[in-house]
Each structure stands twice: as structure tokens, then as C-alpha cells.
Task: inverse folding
């Protein structure tokens, strides 16, 4: 009796025992943390993950979708307090310090957002990025509204977010300039922690209601 033919896997689907989607994403995240986004190509990700570039495209479609998935995954990993578990002023301070530490640990994240995603050809990628950014603004708006003028002045939450992004991004992206402003041999990690506290104090005092 003739042997039954082995079933063929579906066209375009990855074979068994290959590197999974999460492993490819983890490799991309590591590279984005280490390199400027422009250098993080599908070919490099595939080589570092030990897979064929076609598999990366199968999982994510194209580079912009993959980089968007990287940004979303990084943001999703940030610890978030339970809604309403902190007073608005304390919750805003938590977000300020979280933004500082995230920017330091992923120093190319803003270049990723601006150079690679905001200017992506894909309308869907641009729309999704806009949703992420508007979500961050809405979180600040919700905290300001929840305070209801008890301790906070009314400010534009979009301006507040832009200001914080600029304050922390420059400290990281322009580190050679920052080094020129402090004594030689300064511990940059300690300086970064001091700068985080300085910005937190500066912004929170600016947000507090006067009188």
C-alpha cells in the first residue's frame, strides 16, 4: 500500500520549531535600546534572532509595524499604579519620574517615535502612534480634572507632556553637552538621579495652585 503523503504546511506559515514572534520582538527591543533606530533593520533583527528575514516579515508585515510593536511593548512594561490609588499630585510625580527613568533606559525611544513612526508611510502606523500619544495626554488631563483645583492649577496637558519629553530627552540625547557643564569625573548616573528630582520639583511647584 502506498504510504500516505505527508500534509504540507500552509503557504507562508512558519515551519515548526522556529523562533517565535515574542522572541523576535524581544530581539528588536534589545537592539532599539542599544542602537539608533535607523540602524535597526529587519535584516539585523533577523540575524540577531537567528531567523530568516522572511519570518520577521511574516510576523510583523514590515519594519514600521515591527518598530511600533517594539514601542508599544516597552510602554506596556512600565509599572502602572491602580487607578485612583494615588492623589493627583503624587500620581503626576510618579509619571514624571517614570518618564525620566524610561528615557534613560531607552535613550533612543523619542527618535524611534519621531524619525521612524511619526513619519512612517503607513497611515495605520501613524494613526496608532497618535492614539498612544493622545492616551498619554488624556491620562494627565484626567489627573488634573480629578484634582478639581484643590492643589493643581489648570494647565494644558499636551503642553505638559511636550515639556517633559523635551526636558528628559535632551539630558539623554545630548549627554556629551551635559558632561561639559559639570566637573570632570562626575558620576553621570548620580547626576541623572539628581536631574530627575530637580525636574520633578520644578514641574510640581509650577503645577501647584498658588494662594
Result:
Amino acid at each position: 500500500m502506498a504510504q500516505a503523503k505527508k500534509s504540507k504546511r500552509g503557504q507562508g506559515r512558519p515551519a515548526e520549531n522556529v523562533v517565535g514572534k515574542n522572541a523576535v520582538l524581544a530581539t528588536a527591543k534589545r537592539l532599539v535600546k542599544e542602537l539608533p533606530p535607523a540602524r535597526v533593520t529587519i535584516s539585523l533583527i533577523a540575524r540577531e534572532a537567528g531567523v530568516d528575514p522572511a519570518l520577521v516579515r511574516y510576523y510583523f508585515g514590515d519594519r514600521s509595524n515591527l518598530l511600533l510593536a517594539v514601542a508599544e511593548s516597552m510602554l506596556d512594561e512600565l509599572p502602572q499604579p491602580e487607578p485612583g490609588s494615588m492623589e493627583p499630585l503624587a500620581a503626576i510625580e510618579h509619571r514624571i519620574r517614570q518618564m525620566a527613568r524610561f528615557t534613560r533606559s531607552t535613550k533612543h525611544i523619542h527618535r524611534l517615535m519621531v524619525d521612524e513612526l511619526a513619519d512612517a508611510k503607513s497611515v495605520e502606523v501613524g494613526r496608532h502612534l497618535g492614539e498612544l500619544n493622545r492616551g498619554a495626554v488624556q491620562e494627565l488631563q484626567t489627573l488634573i480634572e480629578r484634582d478639581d483645583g484643590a492643589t493643581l492649577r489648570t494647565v494644558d496637558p499636551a503642553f505638559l507632556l511636550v515639556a517633559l519629553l523635551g526636558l528628559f530627552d535632551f539630558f539623554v540625547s545630548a549627554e556629551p553637552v551635559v558632561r561639559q557643564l559639570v566637573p570632570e569625573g562626575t558620576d553621570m548616573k548620580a547626576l541623572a538621579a539628581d536631574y530627575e528630582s530637580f525636574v520633578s520639583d520644578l514641574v510640581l511647584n509650577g503645577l501647584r495652585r498658588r494662594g
